Fold this sequence. Notes:
mainly alpha; single chain; elongated
Amino acid sequence: MDLLEDMVRKAGLFPAFTDIRYMLFSKSAFTEALKSAAKRRRDIILVGLDEMFFARAVLRERRLPFDIALEADPFFSESNLAHLRKVKADVKAGRNISVHDILFFH
């Protein structure tokens, strides 16, 4: 906490800088007081050994060191896109259109 307080004091020597972030690095661990301060304040960034190794891997490999697998959105599935194309063609041709009353909800 003393280091953070010292950084805040020194940053105060530069009043022209208003958007200030405090980034602290640790090879072992951060104190509970520092972790608590980082949770309360958005201007404190704590970087531990895991984050440093992650950043090193990203920079060295120039990619994320793991693969991301996302499920395909069913809206963009080929069967749904084919259905949407058919509905669009039907609307343009005036086919399969039915008129409905407008419902108003209050």
